[in-house]
Every structure is written in structure tokens, then in C-alpha cells.
Amino acid sequence: MVTITQTTTQGPGPARKQGRWRRLPVVHQLHQSVGIQRGMLVAGLVLTALFVLAAIFAPLIAPYGFSQLRDEDGAFGAQQPPSPEHLFGTTVGGYDVLSRVIWGTQTGLGVIVVAVLLSIFAGVALGLVSGYFGGWLDRVLVVICDAIYAFPTLLLAIVMSIAISGGQSSLWGGILAAAISITVVFIPQYFRVIRAETVRIKSEAYVESAKVVGTSNLRIMFRHVLRNATRTLPLIFTLNASEAILTLAGLGFLGFGIEPTSAAEWGVDLKAALSDVSSGIWWTSIPPGLAILLTVLGVTLVGESLNDLADPRLRGRRAVSAASGTVAETSVVPGGTLSAGPGGLAGLENEGRP
Amino acid sequence: MKPAPSRSRKRLGGNLWRYLIIRFLLIFPTIFILVTLVFVLMRTTGDPITAALGDRLSADQLAERIAAAGYDRPIFVQYFEYLGQVFTGDFGTTLSDNRPVIEVLFVYGAATLELAFYALVVAFAVGVPLGMVAAYFRDKVPDAFLRVFAIIFYAVPVYFAGMLMKLVFSVWLKVLPVSGRGTTNTELEMQLLEGKTGIYLWDALRIGDPGILGDVLSHAVLPGLTLGLLTAGIFLRLVRTNVIGTLATDYVDAARSRGVSEYQLVRKHAYRPALIPIITVMGLQIALLLGGAVLTETTFEWKGLGFQLTEYLQARDFVAVQGIVVLLAVIVAVTNFIVDVIAVLIDPRVRY
Amino acid sequence: MSDVLQIRNLDVSFATDAGAVKAVDQVSLTVAPREVLAIVGESGSGKTVTAKTILGLLPETATRAGAILLRSRDGKSENDIATVTKDQLRRIRGADVSMVFQEPSAALNPVLTIGWQIAAGLRAHDPALKRKDARAQAVEILTKVGIPDPESRVDYYPHQFSGGQKQRIVIAMALVLNPGLIVADEPTTALDVTVQAEILDLLRRCRDEFGASIVLITHNMGVVADLADRVAVMYQGRVVEEAAALTLFAHPQNDYTKKLLAAVPRIGQRIEAAERKAPADTDAEPVVRAEKLRIAYPGRLGRPDFVAVDGVDFTIAPGEVVGLVGESGSGKTTIGRAIAGLTTVTGGSLTVLGTEMNGVKERRFRPLRSSIGFVFQDPGSSFNPLLTIAECVAEPLKVHRKSMDQRAVTQRVGELLEAVQLPKAFGSRYPHELSGGQRQRASLARALALDPALLIADEPTSALDVSVQARVLELFAELQKELGFAALFISHDLAVVDILSDKIAVLYRGKLIEEGTGAEVLGAPKDPYTQRLLASLPVPDPVAQAERRRVLADLRYTEPTA
Hints:
heterotrimer, B: mainly alpha, MetI-like fold, 2 domains, disordered N terminus, C: alpha/beta, Rossmann fold, 22 helices, 39% helix, 23% strand, globular, MetI-like_sf (chain B), membrane (chain B), cell membrane (chain B), MetI-like (chain B), transport (chain B)
């Protein structure tokens, strides 16, 4: 649980505004982190930013088009080693490796956005309703989602992509097929998380107090449960984004990818490069492989750091000197004074208690 | 709240059996859901025969084959028939090479089992101790190093890792074979062996030829390491997080206050309670291991279910694909059952 | 002077998310052999941090300065915890000083047998110790702390013991190496009051029979009066007063100490209630009437249902305050929740504001909800963390007074906040920006928003410090007098219930065993359980408490534990 720890003495004004800005996910955690954890978070953010920037500016950065086989000097040729014209050489199909790596970010980003958006909406809605109302619908959904959850995501994505496109791959159809396949795999994950959160929040005193008052279910669900249940979403989002990339590439590697002429996709390129490796050709496999690795690494580092920072047990803190800090007041004064808040003294006194 | 000790023990035993039985029965809806899901999805695009042979046969021939296989009947009839077949272990006949799917499953399943075994050995041997080391040195240099290791092994696509290993150890250093499960000679010996299991390590031990055993093992190193290290990275993270979590509990503090050393705290007091969630989550990783096995087998031409699956996928042989996927669903459901049972058995609280 | 423990000029600071916080500020304390030193204070006073420092158990986010000199029992060695090496510290822990924790179920490793855990401590100090001998020692110490049948129970897991027994085992672990000093951090806070009395007796034996000194950390003045020889009062990280227990209770010097002592609720303190006493209209139709009320929670997986409330009869008249007392598992909270329609009634009859709750449909009950207010126990979770206090307090108005415009709502919220003595400006704050006591008052404001005929308060003050509790109780009494609502006041604390209630009902394991006015129930209890409950409640007066202890011992002798 992420508890906001700005203490209270700030009145309205600029200080308070800064507090709000710091409450934003990621920004808040970046501020909160120290040492190795901050290093990991920053590294992850940088890698992720590079990936997004490459996707946005691919047409400007990439030396050639993703399906370009020739320029004014003639055909590129197949399996050409790296050279000034082709920094990472060319593939067995005669494409420029570097260009395909850069264009690949677009495909990856597109799939992440579509897949994660679709699965968040479906998964959150199902999880919320299922967790809040319970009953037989809940039980059925839980069994179904558990069954799907335990199943290898890649296999399910294969079956899905057969169902969607008959295993054929076309232009945007390919991206959409991949994205929807991944969505189906992810819905159970969001469902499980949101449902668990909903069930937990449902028994919190503030929801019960709304019930005592007679607030309608709809109002409780949206006003009280939904917003509190979705606090963990940035975290799952990052974990799923990395899994989306891996699944997309896995599909490509197994032959369910997007045709090289439709879009650039790293898994497809790796599949094509598989036979090159045995003959010692490294430049067709290492760049797209590294691209996947770095992208997933970046997103995972962000996710891991968010996870650690969200868990007070895993969160590191700065060391302080013994004489520093002010003593927090207890509330003996009539009316009570402000305590140090969740991260303050009361929190310390309670540390380790369940 | 005062429990009568002898009676409460007996009652716990009863609850345990009830839990085991209910958990066992839960396997069936799981398999049923997955079989249904796979069936529905695979049939949304039409019948398998058109998919596999549509571009090779004339319309008349196709219609004839479809009618012969019964794919022209209502989908519900086919569905219930399929359910019945699966229940009796009949997964149909492959379209591309005309073999009973169940035979394919047995022949290639052994290879996948062997690969999964190597991978699990590596994963346990590497992941669990390193996870405890990382928890012990939490937020210090060894921890940072191990975490980056774990994240990289999670982030790297298993086939890319495999390709890199191949490139380094097989192509450049030439110390290990590029692909396959053995040299031609080994494969031949294996075929000739009577009562072969298909698990080469076992069969090689039975043949008793050190040359063949060495050959089998050298072929297993790269695929085993590739898949094993991927899983090890996940185990490492899992162990680290859970051990750190238990290290922060009162009872570890209590043990510390009695003078138990930090090493013993991690080794005994924190590890045991952490084991229960670790085992539960490890069960879920079986799915990941199987997905990884498909990719690893394809990378190293390790002729197991995964390799065969990609072959059938290329051939658009969806009967075979469906059979393999359903079998894997059964394996996943059963392993998860076993893992849950283990987790409950080592938990003295047995809350069910 | 051979003090077991000397703390000199101790400073401790923590790194928190909110920046550095100083928890302990220039604290100096000493503990003599066979002495019980109580460190008393409210939350945030630094008492727990001080205790953990003695064992070197501070988390890595803490830094400290000063000296903690610890003498071993035989007086041969004296170590400064602040400077010893890790390995020395490890050897000191358990052998020279040990600790008893607040929550016994958290302090025992759930997956290891208690015998193993005791032996692990022994073997940590003597690696050569044989398994069999360690076990024999474990059995011996379990016998001494009063665990029945220790030979077989040494192989039990913690969950097979009751809460009180668990705490005995934790104490056994602390005693087994015969350390000169035991640090007990709120050792009875998590326990029911009858169990608390037993554990306090055991701790007294630790001193008398084992000759150990005890540092007792507590917020409960009754516990202090029961056990302590000397008392140090901590406030905001400093020791504000230190004196022998008798002196401190008789003649407190420091203003804070005086305030703290005055705030402790005592039985027979019904000043407010006597004034307020409206002519109880006994003829009027009661707000709540329970007849043979039975509430059972369905058992999981075919296990028998758990009966939380079993055949309870009572009524609440309009304007009457009924106090419901009981220990954990007595079913008191369940009754409160059933009246509010949060828990389903499974048998008998429960009439709330004229509506039968057994089998009631939410649709029919909803209009009545505007006449019921509820105050929850935990001030930390009773407000949606994402809404401001004003939005939370306005919630009942938005639901039931849809015709009210925003200005009227704002005005009403302002009035309510003022009624509970919170500044209007607090309306724009978020729940986490308020202290526990403030949040509990805001909770009261929300419960009163619709001017209810009935208020249910479920342990509204048990999570609060004693001085804050006093203020909240006072406010509650004032508002009740002013608004005249009927109330069900649920608490485990007899003294708290006594302050407010016109009528007290005592619950024990789902059954109502005694009911009557405060004077009847607490003045002359008829049921043996009530007698025991009353006698177990420690009073903040060492002289009176010593007398009560004798009474309790007699009770226990004649009335073996139910």
C-alpha cells in the first residue's frame, strides 16, 4: 500500500501544490527512493524513455524503411556484415538490421498500448463487479480466470491468434491480433488483482460506514472502491507491459508474427536469424535480441522499483544522524495535535506488528 | 479460545483430507474450462481440414474429407464428442503426418519432461540459494548484483539467450554441440534400445556407454542452462522478496533477541515460513517453464512437444496443436494441484 | 551501586518518508537488580524505541548516540550495547537481556514447533548443546511458566495454543537462559483483561522467583500500578518524570503525568451520566429489541457454523445509552453490526426502529438507515483516504438529503465539525492529515450528520491514547445529552463503558450473562464471570491494586477458569 506521507503542517499555497505533484505515481516514488533503489528506478525510466522516444521518432532516426530492400545504390544484399552504410549489417531477407530494430519499437509500443488498455478496462470492470458482489458469478469468474492464469501465456496467445487471424498475419491486423491475444491472457491478471483489492477494501471501515449510511452500491463501487483499488495499477501495468513485449516477440519467433513487409517485429527477425547463428553470423540476432532485452529490462526495472517502494518492508530509507529531526508531538494537548502521520512515529511504534 | 489439544489435532487431520479432496476435484473444472476454451477458439475460424489442406485440395475433395472426419456436423455435437474423446485419452489423429496425437504426446513428452527436469535442477540449485544470499545482503552490493542478474534473466527472451549461448559456446568456442539431443550415433542407439523411455539421460544410463552418456549430457547443457537460468532468475526474486518479508516479522526479531545469529535467522527462522508462499508461486511458474520450453526446444531443435508444436503450427495442423495444448493444460492443472498439496503439507497451521 | 542497566544520554533518530524524526531525546535511566522499571507513555513517546535500543534491535533506518551499559547477571562483565561488535551483541542477547513482545502470536514462528524455537535460542549460545538436553531444558522452562503437559506440548506449533499460553511461551523463551534483565514491550496489550491479570502474575514471578529485573513498557497505568517498583514517564522522546511507583501515583509532580493520570477512566466515574440522565421513558417503544437473537457465520467447506451470538435478549429505549462489554470473541461487535444491517441475523428476533431484521431486505431497510449512525473502531480506516473530511462527512447528506444544495451541505458539514470541536478548516484536509482522535471525532460528526435516533459505537476509543480517549468520551456524553439519541456503546473496557452508559450488558461467548445499571453490574456483580472481569481490571493505584489482586486470587481459587 502506498501511503502518502506528506505531513500536515503545510497550508494551502505553493508548498501544497508541490505535494500534489509529488503524489503522482512514479514522481512520488522517484522522490521517495534512495541508493540502489533510486539507481534502478532511474535506469529503468531512462531505458523506457528511450524506447518510447525511438518509437515516436522512428521515421526520423531510422536510416531506411523497415521493408526497404534497396536504395539508389542498388539492393542491400543479404547477410551483409556491418558497414558504414549498414551499421548492423543486413538480414537474410536483405533488410537493414538497424532500421528494423528502430521501427520495431513502434510495433512494440502499439501492441503494449492496445493490449494493456484493453485488458485494464475489461479486467478492472470484471474484477470490481465480481469482488464487490461476490456470489456465484464471482465463483465462476474466479475459477475461469484461475484456469487461464495458470496456463502458459504463450500457448494461449498462439491459440488466440489462430482464432483471430487463422494464424495469418497482415498489416494492422497483425498488431491487433497480437494485442488482442495478449489482452485475453492479461485480463485474468488484472481481474485477480482488482478483485483481491476490492474484497479487501469492501471490508474496510469506510466502505462499511457508507453501507450503514445506505449509500447505493453503484456509488460505493465508484466513489469508494474503484479509486482505491486501482492504486496498484501502475505497478501491474509495468509488469504487463514487459510481458506483452515478450509475448509478442515469442509469437513472432514461433511464426505467428507480423510479415516483415507489414511492420518490423523483433521476434520475427530473431526467428529469421536462428539459422544464421549456426554459421557464426551474429549481427542479425544480437541487435533485435538486445532491443527486446533492454526494453523489457527498462520496464521491469521501473516495475520492480515501484513494487519495492510500495512495500514498506522492502523500501530503503536514508540514514540520518542521531541528533537530527524534531520530536513529534503526542496528542495530550486539548483537541489533540497532529501526529507524524503514517510514516512518522506512530508508524515506527507499530513497525513489525501485523 | 482454549483448545483441547488432542481433539484439535484430530480435527485438523479431517480438514486436511477434506481440503485435499476438494482441491483434487478442482482439477476437473480447470481442465474442462481450458479444453472448452481451446476448442472454441480453434474452431472459430473454421474446420482444421480447410486450414491444413485448403490450398492443396479441390473444393470437392475438401468437402469429402470434412464429411469423413465429421466436421460438418453441428459444433455442439462435435464439442461433446471431443470432450468424450479427451476423457478417454483419445486426442484424434494428426493431419500432416497421420499419427495418433496421443502417440505424439508420449514420444515427445518424454523429451520435454527431460528438459524441464534439467531446467528445474538448475533453477533450484542457482535460484534458491542466491535468493537467500540476496536477502541476507539486502540493499548491499551482492544484492544489487544478484537482482540485476535476476532481472536480466527475466528480461532476456529465452530464445535470444539460447542463440547467444549457441554463438559463444558452439560456434565460437566450439565446446558444445549446436542443437539436437544427441549425435546421430546416439540417436540410433536410443532407437534400438529395448523398452526405451524417451528420457535420454535414463536410457543412456541403461545403455551404460560413457561415451553416449557424455554425448547426451553435453547436448543437454545449453538448453538446460538457458531454460534453467530463466527460471532461476524468477526463483531468485521470489525467494529474496519472501525471505526479506519474513525477516521483517516480529518472530524473527524475537529470535534475534534470543541471540540467534543472522545466518541462522535467514537459513532457518525466515526461510521456512517464506517457503510456503514461495512454493505456491513456484507452482504458477510451471506455466512459464512450459512456455519457455516451447521456445527453448525450437531454438535448440530439441525434439520435444514444444518443437513439435511449432512444426505443427507451421503445417497448420490444428488437430495436433489442439491435442498438445490440451495435454499441457492437464499437466499444468495436475502440477498446480501437487504444488498446492505440498504447500499445505509443510504448513503446520493447515487452515482448511 | 550495581545497576543491571544504565542508559546514559540516549538519542535515537529515524529516517522516515517525512524526513528525519527524533524518537528519543537525551534519555537516561537505570535499573537495579530485581527491580521492575515501568516506562510509561502514549504513542510516539519513544518508549518502545528505548526498549528496542536496549537489545540493539533498532531497524537500519535508525541512528543513535549515548551509552547503554548492560551488566551480566553474575556481574562479571559489563557491555555498552552501543559499541559492542555484532557477535558480542548476539551473545548478550538472550543471555544477559531478553525481550517479551506485545503480540504473542506474531512473536512465535508459525511453522516451527515451540520446542524447536526454544532450543534454537539455547543452541545459539551453546553450539555443543545436545538436542536432547535442549529439549529437556525447554520442557523444564515450559513447566515453570505454567504450560500444562509440557512433555508433549513442547512439540506443538504456536497455533495450537491460546493467546495467553502463547504469551507464557514467549516469556519462557525470554527466561530460558536466565538473563538478568527482561524487557517487556506492552506484554499484555494484545490480551483480554482476564488473561492480562495472569500474565502480570507470571511477570511478577519472573522477578520474585527468577530474580530478573524487568523493564516494562506500557501505556496502561493500571498495569504500571500492578507491577512496577519504579516508573519513568516519557513524553515526546524525553523522560519527564521518574519516581517510585507509590510516590508517582500518590504525588505526581509533572503536569503531563498529572494529566495522564487524570485521564485514565475509572469505574464509578459516572459524573457526566448522572447530570445528563434524562427521564428514561420506559413506556415508549424501544429503539432496539432483541429476543433470543442468534447470529451464526456459515462454516467453510462443510464445517459447522460458528455461532457468534447465541440467544441474547435486550432492549434499548429511546435516548438510552446501553454499554455492551465483553472480551474478544464474546460477540459484542457482531451484535452492533447486526443492528446496523451489516451482518445477517440467523435466528430469533431483532427489531430495529420497528423493523424486523431477521430476513429483512436491504431495499426495505435503506430508508431507516438515515436514523442510524455508526462509529467504527479503527480511526485509520474509517475514512476513504482519497476524499477530504468534508466530503466524507457530507456523504450521508448526499445520500439521504438529495434535495439539499451544495451550499446547505457545506454549511451543515461546518456545523457538524464544530459540534465535534474540530475547526471548520479541517474539512478540506485528507484523513491521513488528522490524528487518531481527530479522525474519531470526524467519524462521530459523520455518524450524527442525519440526526439519528440510534448511534452504534464499536470500540470507538480503543485505538486511542488514554488522554485522547478521555476527550472523545466527554464529547460523546455532551452530544448525547444535547441531541438525545439512543446509543449502543461497545467496548472491552469496563471503566469506559461505565462512564457513559445508563445500562450495562455483559457478554461472554455469545451469551448475555448479566445486565443492569452500572451500579448494579459493577457495584455488586452476580455472575462469577463478571466478578472475575471486574477484579481483573487493574486500577491506577498501587495500593488499591495490591488489594484487588488478593480479591482476584480468592476468586480464582473458588471459581476455576470457565
